[in-house]
Amino acid sequence: MPSATPESPRVVLGVTGGVAAYKSAEIVRGLRRAGYFVSPVMTRDALKFLGAATLSALASEPVRTELYGDASTPSPHTYLGQSADLVLIAPATAHVIARLALGLADDLLTATVLATRAPLVICPAMHTEMWEQPSVQANLQTLRSRGALVVGPASGPLANGDEGTGRLEEPERIVEVVSAVLGGYRGPLSGRTVLVSAGGTREALDPVRVVTNRSSGRQGYALAEVAARRGARVILVTTVRRDLAPDLLSRIEVVDVESARDMRDALVGRLVEADVVVMAAAVADFTFDPHPVKWKRADGPVPMIPRPSEDIVASLVERRRPGQVIVGFAAETGDPEVAARAKWRSKGVDLMVGNDVTAEGAGFESPTNEVVIVSGEGAAERLSRRGKAEVAEVILTKVEGLLARGD
Ligand code: CTP
Asked: Residue 109: CB within 6 Å of ligand 1?
């Protein structure tokens, strides 16, 4: 653990009264591991869920709880507010969110938030019924409009055996967001533009019907998020809308497309801006001349005369300028290595990522993936099953190596 000094960036961690308060111990550990000086503040209700001694032992300095009565720091809220580089509230209850939205200063934590100019990151945790209350959502909207970053909540098991949305975001993710905010989103891809395609294209048969595939866009979105977190400006050309991490919204430009033709036009049009292109989309190989009006049942089966669509990645490779790195994906059924090697060769990409879309825990709708990355004649690396963000990390690390070679 790098030992943070009082000169290290200071994170004031506010812990409020919910069951997830116990997870603040993990957050403190993660923040300290990342080199931050952590000043914990607990509310009165937080102390009902977690002993101050626990956080005092883990943080960079003892827990503070009181606005008054601390002889060594007579004005703790201004001291903390002015010295904070970031104020993080995790978990944040519906009650503290309401107090912050109103601008109250009735305890040390809320007074500190008023006394700071540092970024504020709020990680809500509560039961689904509370999370969905219009009052809670309106308060959060107020805080967002004043610049606060709201991270989570996630879905999953809640207290009392319940399930739903309202679970505190994973401590690891919270630490990642804090690091990204404090690091100014500088990283190995700073100054680079990454063009990512995601999702399955939709080919119209008539104004009502489309032919599409099962791609969920998850791997493409994970690539876009990881690239943005590593400092890149990202252009995400996608057929599907998924949630993006709120801190990355301004760093990822989303371009909506539907058909293979739209996707081709968007990608070819934006290619000149890109240092890296990642073709994670599942593009239709065949398209149709759509019937101009709805095909009626009485007319018999819809005529489907397929025409091959343009191979977008081949068009991008043809137009690439020196130094641009292009990554393709190969969706296969069965062991993808042979096909990924063949497609690496035939498509002229720098990396070809093959996956077996029928394998358990891999492929289209799965949150995890299991891939083989071909980077040259005879060069293939197999990645065991892992989250799509982790797969994206490995791919982008290889991309960074290729960019460095081209510099
Ligand atoms: N791709 C593309 N344009 C297409 C079809 C595919 O750019 N019309 C891209 C995909 O985005 C992917 C790569 O090419 O990055 C490989 O896609 P895949 O469907 O696996 O390959 P195909 O060339 O279509 O080969 P096949 O269908 O025979 O497996």
From this structure: no
- Are 173 and 259 part of one and the same domain? no
Q: What is the pLDDT of residues 358-401, one digit of tens each?
A: 988 888 889 999 999 999 998 999 999 999 999 999 999 999 99
pTM recorded for the entire structure: 0.81
Residues 75 and 177 grouped into a single domain: yes
Q: For residue 396, which of 230, 253, 237 has the smallest C-alpha distance? A: 230
Q: Is the CB of 353 under 6 A from ligand 1?
A: no
Let me know whether 139 and 286 are in one domain: no
Give the residue numbers spanning the domain of 268: 193-406
Annotated catalytic, 213? yes
**pLDDT tens-digit profile of 155-201?**
888 888 888 899 999 999 999 999 999 988 889 999 999 999 999 99
Find the 314 Cα to ligand 1 centroid distance in Å.
Answer: 9
Is there an atom of ligand 1 within 6 Å of 317 CB? Answer: no
One-character DSSP codes across 269-317 = HHGGG-SEEEE-SB--SEE----SSPPPGGG-SPP---EEPP-HHHHHH
Give the whole-angstrom CA distance, residue 222 versus residue 338: 25
